[in-house]
Description:
- The chain is an alpha/beta fold and 541 residues long.
- Helix content is 38%, strand content 21%.
- Helix 9 runs antiparallel to helix 10.
- The chain is globular, with a radius of gyration of 26 Å.
Amino acid sequence: MISARNITLAYGKRVLFDEVNLSFVKGNCYGIIGANGAGKSTFLKILSGEIEPNKGVVEITPGERMAVLTQNQFEFDEETVLNTVLMGHAKLWKMMHERETIYAKADFDEEDGMRAAEIEADFGEMGGYEAESDAGSLLSSLGVMEEYHQSLMKEIPGNLKLRVLLAQALFGNPDILLLDEPTNGLDIETIGWLENFLADYENIVLVVSHDRHFLDAVCTHVADVDRHKIKIFTGNYTFWYESSQLISRQINDKNKKTEEKRAALLDFIARFSANASKSKQATSRKKALEKLNIEQIEPSNRRYPGIIFQPQREVGNQILNIENLSKSIESRKLFDKVSFSINKGEKIAFLSKDALAVTAFFEIINGDQKANAGKFEWGTTITKAYLPFENSEFFAEGLTLLEWLRQYVPPHVTDADEPFLRGFLGKMLFSGDDISKKTNVLSGGEKVRCMISRMMLQNPNLIVLDQPTNHLDLESIQSFNEGCQTFPGIILLASQDHTFIQTVANRIIELTPNGMIDRLMSFDEYMSNERVKTLREEMYN
């Protein structure tokens, strides 16, 4: 068990935590949620000992080992990939070195023999004889192939380093596992593996993540960081969010009788428990759902952006035609002979095992780069808005938010005065003096929210979204997701957010170096379809 007792932390007048008291117990996975800046990552650092609180203590059951996912990609540059993982179990790593040192001695004596016998007993008990094999298996499961295992960390591709550090944290079955954004840099297949791994994990897990599907798949509890406190609720993120929203709506509806509210909530809990029992979580984890009760739930005071795309006109029959489109970068083929047309009502998720492929495709159809072959044609009724993967070029000048948004007012808007523009910025939670903030000092999340304001201003009937959840907090992701679900136009989407794709897309197109796969089905259906699995293997070989 790990407990936080009277934890208080403030930076000047800014209070993050005030007398926080919590205990985390074996067999549970806790999703740490809260608005940006609430202190989620800071709390994990307090638990790990990296940050000392102003007041209070962290207590860990004696003898239990803690592992932390570090974000420092350069700390282990001079170590091999395999050794970096093994170093995650510090006691075992130290013992491995002592064992090697003793057996390498030229003057091996009786005392050395006795120490060697002690080490061998402890070494075997800690799984030392299988350690390298287990570490290699973890790496392979996380997409770090065997060819890299003996390479130095500084020699491997940057996108693999976080995977190695994740393997380091998971290695050796730690009693307490602290994970801050563990899905960063992972593709959807690898995230699925990690979901299964953690859902069956028998020890304590605390995880900060903006991936709702991941939180739903692994968490038995939600620890909500709010108002300088942390409160634990039984259930996963979706249960916490939907029940919180339901309570909030009922509080605002003064005509609802108390018993009607209670009946509705109990019905919701029953339906949630039934659905969750069919999930991938281990049987031992499902027992937590039996403890769900109405008294635990309270409304959230979070602020959610208002993301609403309102098309100026409906799309016509001609939307977008693609013919034999191909793209390569030097000798690297991103996609080849891509041909398809878009129909009314379609919301298409684009996939590829090459991260550059979909971004290149979106930039081509948006006119930002050239294809090697093929052509595309937009319909005359289409008004599109594009959220690119990289947005830094839009914020190079130090304009105020109001000045920045004004430059994107479309020709059909004739009354774009300050109150009009404030309305779009306000929907994205920029209010009051925020509109005077300079765009070149915005955070990553603030820049994305500005880009969404810009998109809404266009009144598009087609939107192109390249990794739309990047840099956003859970509240913004939830609102963006819901806005796309209700959008009456066309959506072209690329994302690593499983829930976003599953709830929005009704068609899947996968771009490969040897052609494309095109299916009218949901994302979950696509990923579980045996014929599609076979076809994907053929396309990437």
